[in-house]
Amino acid sequence: MQGSTCTIFPRRVSTGSARPWRGHLPITSVALLELLNRAAAGRVEFSRVEWVLYVACEFWAAANAQELDAYLDARPMDSLADARRAFSAIGAVEVTRVLQEVGHHPNIDALERALLATSESVDQLIARFAGRYLREERGLRVELAFACRAAADSQA
Predict the structure, then answer these.
(1) Do residues 5 and 22 lie in contact, with contact meaning Cβ atoms separated by under 8 Å?
(2) How far apart are the C-alpha atoms of 98 and 21, rounded to whole Å?
(3) Which of 96-100, 101-105, 119-123, 146-150 has the lowest mean pLDDT?
(4) Cβ atoms within 10 A of the Cβ of 23, count?
(5) Taking the alpha carbons of 129, 37, 10, 47 in that order, is the dihedral positive or negative?
(6) Residue 105 in 3-state DSSP?
(7) CA–CA separation, 35 vs 71, rounded Å?
(8) For residues 50 and 58, what is the distance between their CA atoms, to the nearest angstrom?
(9) Is 0.90 topped by the overall pTM?
(10) Residue 22 and residue 12: Cα distance in Å, rounded?
(11) What gap in Å lies between CA 53 and CA 37, rounded to an integer?
(12) Would you place residue 70 in the very low, low, confident or very high pLDDT band (cuts 50, 70, 90)?
């Protein structure tokens, strides 16, 4: 975690972005760090819920950093299909619709613009999903993450 914002892995955000992205919300960072720590410890089996969380986090971070071209580089159609399934699972209806409309040769710049132009609160949807994951699958208390967010908000 970095400073009082409680975000991990800050991403470069284009200066032309209409709404600068500050990174994942604290609860999302806590859940993602839990997954990354398990992976670093050599535990490579993850549930479907963990897969959804990881894909949604990484894809959304890449979209906000305007780095989808690098994220999709190796297997663009598979990665887009994975993202579509992940965002559908977390209830991001508009993002899912945008991803369904992508053809076999997507224009990455147009895709990033369309994703960032959606009106739904994708970060909040991911955070809610992350909170449910921490409570229901990991049995963790999540008050710490919310306290961290409140501290960050009070300093803003």
Answers:
(1) yes
(2) 19
(3) 146-150
(4) 20
(5) negative
(6) coil
(7) 19
(8) 12
(9) no
(10) 10
(11) 14
(12) very high
